[in-house]
Design brief:
The protein folds into two domains: about 45 residues; about 240 residues, Metallo-dependent phosphatases (Purple Acid Phosphatase, chain A, domain 2). It is built from five helices and 14 strands. The strands form three sheets. A six-stranded mixed sheet has the order 4-3-2-1-13-14, covered by helices on one side. A six-stranded mixed sheet has the order 5-6-7-10-12-11, with no helix packed on it. Strand 3, helix 4 and strand 4 form a beta-alpha-beta unit. The relative contact order is 0.15. The structure holds manganese (II) ion. Manganese (II) ion binds next to loops.
């Protein structure tokens, strides 16, 4: 360590050492900041979808609250539900069957419904229910709801997938023709499309829990719900809201916005994100 050569070596070594010491750190810092940037960018680009789900509106129903000379109970209830759903600023709306109480709904009510749906500032996907199923003379045979620019009606009995490309969404469902025990609303749902961010399913029928059996029409067994590859299943038929959420299932019956059974007149707001668990929130209409 005494001679110049050693010092020179030490300095050189030190210089070299410092350089090699600094270099990786500056590279690490660069990497870290790049990672931070990418990480922040990814966070910024987190995919999210918020949508509303309702069903079982039963327009033209015959509940006792319908008062002659007053605004129709079902129409005003649905209009209020649409208004309240809009307050959550959903990206889209799913209507899971029984918009109408019967295929004998009046022309005035049908055109009123088509008008208010076309007035909604968002895409709508809907399926028929058992009350407005695709039997001969059906509302949806008489009136083409697919002519409503912001609406897609899934009317294929064997099932079909609607696309909302602006939201990167695919929605699968079946168009019920006959409400029978043979009709399985969630059976044969196709595999998740590879070219969408969100895959939603819709079904209208009676819920059958594990171990339960039914000979009733349009059964939806819990097993079908848990087997589903959809990010969310929007279900209809039960007028009381029911969340079906566990580690295998993300589904709900929205309940009816025009029937106060259960928790009251209800709809559901769903939040999906690629970095968080789905949030399924039942809202009571005030
Ligand atoms: Mn129904």
């Amino acid at each position: 360590m005494g001679d110049w050569g050693t010092w020179k070596f030490a300095i050189r070594f030190g210089f070299f050492d410092v350089a090699t010491y600094i270099e990786p750190h500056s590279q690490l810092r660069a990497l870290a900041s790049r990672h931070f940037f990418i990480h922040n960018n990814v966070e910024f680009m987190t995919k999210r979808l918020r949508f509303a789900h309702c069903s079982d509106i039963h327009l033209d129903g015959d509940a006792g609250e319908k008062i002659e000379g007053h605004v129709d109970y079902y129409k005003s209830g649905f209009a209020r539900a649409l208004m309240e759903m809009q307050r959550h600023k959903p990206d889209m709306l799913l209507i899971a069957g029984d918009l109408f109480d019967a295929n004998t709904a009046s022309d005035e009510t049908i055109t009123w419904a088509m008008d208010i749906l076309s007035d909604q500032p968002l895409p709508i996907v809907m399926i028929p229910g058992n009350h407005d199923c695709l039997e001969p003379g059906a509302i949806y045979h008489r009136y083409d709801f697919n002519k409503i620019p912001n609406l897609q009606m899934i009317d294929a009995e064997e099932g079909a997938t609607a696309r909302v490309d602006t939201l990167d969404v695919a929605v699968w469902g079946k168009g019920m023709v006959e409400h029978s025990p043979d009709f399985l609303p969630l059976d044969s749902c196709p595999e998740r499309p590879t070219d969408c961010s969100w895959y939603l399913g819709m079904g209208h029928g009676i819920f059958v829990p594990h171990g339960g059996e039914t000979d009733r029409s349009s059964p939806i067994p819990m097993q079908h719900i848990e087997d589903s590859v959809c990010d969310y299943l929007a279900l209809g038929h039960h007028h009381a809201a029911m969340e079906l959420v566990n580690e295998k299932a993300t589904a709900a019956y929205s309940g009816s916005p025009t029937d106060t059974i259960g928790r009251g007149a209800t709809y559901v707001i769903i939040d999906l994100a690629d970095d968080a668990a789905p949030a399924v929130n039942v809202h009571e209409i005030s």
